[in-house]
Amino acid sequence: MTSPLTEQCLRRRAPISRSLVKCELFAESSSRRLLKARHQEFEQLHIRTAVITQPLDQEDRVAPITLYLMQIVHASLSSRDHEQRGQWVVCRRFSEFWHFRRALLEQIKAWEASLSVQEKQENEFIAMSNSLRRAFGNDFPRKHIRIDTPAIIAERRVGLQEFLQRLLTVYADASIYIEHSRQANDVSHRHMTAMCAAISEFLNVPPWQKELEAMQTLAVMALSDVDEQEMALNPEDSGYKCCICMNDDDEEATASVHLLGEDKLVRLPCSHHFHEDCILDWFSTSMTCPLCRNSVIRVKRWRGCVFEPSAARCVIVTLQLECASALGTEESSSSELGSKRLL
Hints:
GO terms for molecular function: phosphatidylinositol binding; ubiquitin protein ligase activity; zinc ion binding. It contains 13 helices and nine strands. It is of the alpha+beta class. The protein folds into two domains: 7-206 and 319-338, no CATH class; 219-311, Herpes Virus-1. The chain has a four-stranded antiparallel sheet with strand order 1-2-3-4. A hairpin with a 2-residue loop joins strand 8 and strand 9 (305-307). The longest helix is centred in the middle third of the chain and has 31 residues, at 150-180. The chain is globular and about 70 Å long. The chain starts with 6 loop residues before the first strand and ends in a 15-residue tail after the last helix.
């Protein structure tokens, strides 16, 4: 027996923590740019939540279980593009969310305990610890020792979606931390790596999404800072305007804007330069130069994968979702969710 579909769409917002920006880990331009690019990418995600109840067996002798299916899609794409571009589903019961949240907190405590007193006083640790604990808000749904009622399901649908949103932000921060941390403490690094892997598995992050992240990393790392004094001495660069936003470099930018790199100019391998935020936004749709269309990514090997220049654009995939009918119609049969049940 299937209950009527309930769906909720919520725009994912992933503001960059200023403590992360200011800490030593992200003081380097490349690390700061990668953090911004990853957060901007996650800002383009919608989460659609469908709730489906079904019996534990065919004869319906016991209380039904409730599945929360969360489809993650790019908000900037049209409905037609949704059928082609990357999207994936997280299908979990409330008990799985609850146990994972508890296990993740224990992993965070183990990571913090593996650090020395001196390491715990560094801004890098404080910023990352705050980012990890961001997922543990007071709005997480409560446990109930009774059959799921419509009120309980409605509360959990909203609360679990909020938890998933924060978990996506934690995943972005943790993955960048692993790539760019000093790795002075091997035990600490192993704890963080295991934690990030557990989050990735729970979020059901597909291989093509990880490939996109690797391509994005290569593109962002290919950027270099532009020497503003050198540009001032070059007559050809006088009065330069970014061809993406058509605004020139504002010399009176505030300190906070300068800290976040919003007013900085960066150079691509082809020597064309643009505002940092402008080119990072451009990379969300194409990893080529806006002027000459040359690929920013050369043939490189990244974690055993080879990326060709022809693959520099965002990966276009077709993902057949087993629960597509549940997310697009009012009802879904129990048989369609058999392979997705997590008992």
